[in-house]
Amino acid sequence: MKLAKSLAVTLVILALGPFAASSGDTAEAKYVPFTLLNEDAVVIQGDVEKEGQEFVMRIRELRGSFIPPHTHPVDEHITVLAGNVCLGMGPEFDRAKLKCLGPGGYAFFPKGTTIFGESAEPATVQVHGLGPFHLHWKYPLQTFESADAAEAFRYRAGQKIRTKYGVGVIEKGWRSGPIIQYETRVGSELVMATESEVTLIK
């Protein structure tokens, strides 16, 4: 029975040979090896801005990163490539709702779902879907370049702080509502340090 089934499948493939061969364009084939990112995100296929365009992008999560609550106008497919990432759904960050995924783990969130997350260690995630892949923070995103940065952040770029990962120097600041973090270089590693957990070294 198995032999007959295999033969039937083979005959179908042979019959569709010319059609199958023309369904793909080898000139557009692409191979992208996995490497750790030196930037926050990179698009490796397609266009995240174009409506209906398939895309694949990779995102770096630093040790200690919090992902504030946000939504996307399209479905989101997430695959963890390295490290561990914890993701949850709901209007506010709630660690009790997090589900953690290791390498190879996959998560799907329908468009409009409010998502948040945390990465206790360095991680890389791959996101694929259809554009436009815009991000809407529940709370406005503020950085050191924001006009109200002086009121939004307690610390500044260049200051030395003590974090739970060691002593480091602040490079960037990120705030979305109650989540305030500093991109900090500790030795050769960039980490995310939460404002409530650091102290200034004078």
Can you offer a commentary on this structure?
The chain folds into 2 domains: about 35-135, Jelly Rolls (Sandwich); about 140-200, SH3 type barrels (Roll). A hairpin with a 2-residue loop joins strand 14 and strand 15. Helices cover about 10% and strands about 45% of the residues. The protein is mainly beta and about 200 residues long.
Could you give a short description of this structure?
With 202 residues, the chain is mainly β.
Produce the secondary structure layout.
Elements: H1 2-15, H2 17-22, E1 41-46, E2 54-61, E3 65-71, E4 76-82, E5 85-89, E6 99-101, E7 106-109, E8 115-119, E9 123-130, E10 136-137, E11 141-143, H3 149-152, E12 160-163, E13 166-176, E14 179-186, E15 189-194, E16 199-200
Antiparallel strand pairs: 1-2, 2-9, 3-8, 3-10, 4-7, 4-9, 5-6, 5-8, 11-13, 12-13, 12-16, 13-14, 14-15
